Predict the structure.
Amino acid sequence: MRVRTRGKKTWQKRRLSGRVADYEFALPADLIASRPLAERDASRMLVLDRRSGRVEHRSFRDFPEYLDPGDIAVLNNSRVIKARLLSQDRRIELLLVEPVGPREWICLVKPGRKMRAGFAFSIAGAAARVTKVLVDGSRIVEFDREPDLERFGSIPIPPYFHRKSDNEDEIRYQTVFAESSGSVAAPTAGLHFTSQLLSRIPHAYVTLHVGIGTFLPVKVERVADHHMHAERYSIGEEAARTLNAAARIFAVGTTSARVLESQPAGPIMPRSSSTGIFIHPPFAFSRVGALLTNFHLPKSTLLMLVCAFAGREAVLAAYAEAVRERYRFFSYGDCMLVV
């Protein structure tokens, strides 16, 4: 298949793969960052030119150099909630995933066997009851009052950290521009930004509340058989105006990219909706002109999105280079800019 890069005369051959196994790569465990660097913007930044496949090794602090006049960086300003709850006797654990009604949440639960429909318990200062067991094993839990997340909840850091969340995570697993509460995982590409760096670049915000579906393992053999859970998003009036006037859009993170690429053809309009868009090769991007993102898990939907943007062979070659150069991977790791 021949794919043309928007705005360029260069053409590039890409081999497409529909097998999940083709998005595997080897990663030494000691490259998984379980703690952030002392300074947010001190991360390394691998820069991949998707036209030539050329790789540069830079610092994230160099990011503003890549924006030309008229370009705009688009960031997800969703705020991570303290969604992980433990009962007082520590026998029951909930992860709040998504609100579905007044005081009703879709939850992941432990232990699953005892928490059948009708099971009642106390947690986070509220009385709770399982009202429904969903097909995927999650539960709908109804509370008699809003659970007190600030007092009883904790930040739901990724399981590959192999530790409990602490006070540092309450600050660092949150972007400096986080505003609209609703995510159960951080939009991690935004974690590198400081207020000072943001002041140096033109930028706009969209909101996508990151759900657990983005990070669930892909359990099918064929990419096309995977189903994405829908996530709530919004685009404000000011952001829509700014995006429509932009020469090129730098999507900060896969979540921002998914919001933008979910929009119908024509000018971007203010809206609040949800998207279950699954971006993987051979998806043709129509909104995003450059992508800043962290390094993602093997065989993940996030890695597939990056491969759709830059080509699977080029991305996996860049990942191999990042491993050789000992970049830090995943949520608290270094970043990658694809231009």
The first strand starts at residue 2 and ends at 4. Residues 312-324 form the longest helix (13 residues). Residues 62 and 106 are 41 Å apart (CA to CA). DSSP finds seven helices and 19 strands in the chain.
